[in-house]
Amino acid sequence: MAERLTLTLVTPTHRILEVQCDEVRIPGLKGYFGVRPGHEPLLTTLDAGALHFFMDGKDDAYAIVGGFAEIQDDKVLVLADEAVHVETIDLEHEKAALDEARLKLCEVQADLVEHKTAAAKVRRHAARVAAGQI
Fold this sequence. Notes:
eight-stranded mixed beta sheet, ATP Synthase, domain 1, 2 domains, single chain, alpha+beta, globular
């Protein structure tokens, strides 16, 4: 069993991060789950939320939106639709955008394509707000 994990975070446009860390916490569709060295192999779908990783007792995070994670041989590969580092998040802007997205979601009908788009915006901004409050 390795002492550390290798975390690789990529989006469709580029590689965001590759680090050695002690633990990763990932937003799965059924809730957050943690990965430490020796974790069983896993392939899972991700939800919007904050991806945390810990190195030497320090926490760092990215707001991610959707995608997949593959865990195997002490390697964590996160293929996110979108990833934003917490230090780059303008929390007040994201809170206002979240409020606006929630209002828009209430205005559209559930059977319209607009509803899915509006719901995705709510998830994106909610993930950024949650990550930005760390």
